[in-house]
Design brief:
With 361 residues, the chain is an alpha+beta fold. The chain is built from twelve helices and nine strands.
Amino acid sequence: MPPDTEIQKTLQETADEIITAGKDRGFQFAAYHNGRLVANISAGAANPVTSKVVDEETLFLAFSVTKGIVATVAHRLIEQGAISYDTMIASIWPEFGCQGKDSITFRQALEHGSGLPHMPRVTVDTLCDWETMCSAVANMSPLWKPGSRVQYHAISWGWIVGEPLRRITGKMMNDLVRELISEPLRCDGIFVGRPAALQNRMASLEGEEDPADALPNDRPEGIPYWMRPLPATMNRADIQEACLPAVNGQMTALALARHYAALLPEGIDGIRLLKPETIQGAISPPLRDPDRKRMTGYSRIEPHPEGEKSVRKFGHGGHGGSGGFVDLDRNTAVGFTRNRLSAEPTLEVLTSQLYSLLGVA
């Protein structure tokens, strides 16, 4: 079903103005409301050198937006009985159960509570080798007692969550995403490890300078210095084709919004990826999280007027401003992808205008 004509037209005009003003390079924005596609817009250039225009088929590397997709995969497998929240990771990944990590549960891994927010001492080329990375992560020591606190695991989360799922299913995350999300939703716009043949659909990342502190050091780091600047690293074809379940999801805004629409109570096109009770359990913030933002794989998008215990808007954002979410109060799902890493609030501007046009602001 095509998007709503008036909403589409108005949002497209706003998007074009944002590009003309130089506030963004290229982006997509898509939204579902009450199970219906109401917006699917594209604007700007996918590549600053070639000026290739962004269209609805353009794929964007969306960094940690990937975590929300992987969380849905994990919860689907839990519903199927393949694994449980209380499964000790070491029971299915014995090599992981050293250095005080023997009692870490799968729930703690999803909640960023394993005590392993840092990356192992590897190199950028090693990121593409799944077995080597899993071995390096398994040999790490927690920075604090696992389960005693929550702190964001920016990149390490991908192997801590992804390897247990590979062990129990025999499948890598790219295959699980295809089978559990893309195929049921009949979309070809979400990849965690993109097929090489789709390189021509990729937007090129830009817009981040090498930070002053990105120098060789011995500190435990969530995003190590050797990955900086991130656009240069993440634009590499080998990095995009590898399986990095925390950070290298490549997707369209339409596919991202469709994924989140399938988490709404009524689902979309008769498809509901998770049971309502599973979602309610998944979006309960762990008590050990001081900012009450982390949840069981997803993230709280904004506080709710009823207080910190009530989460009605959840999903996951990504470095540089991409993001996708479910708004339960407005029965709306949104996806936003961009290639200029920026704090420019394009997603917020378009979402606010969308709500106004829908009459649910």
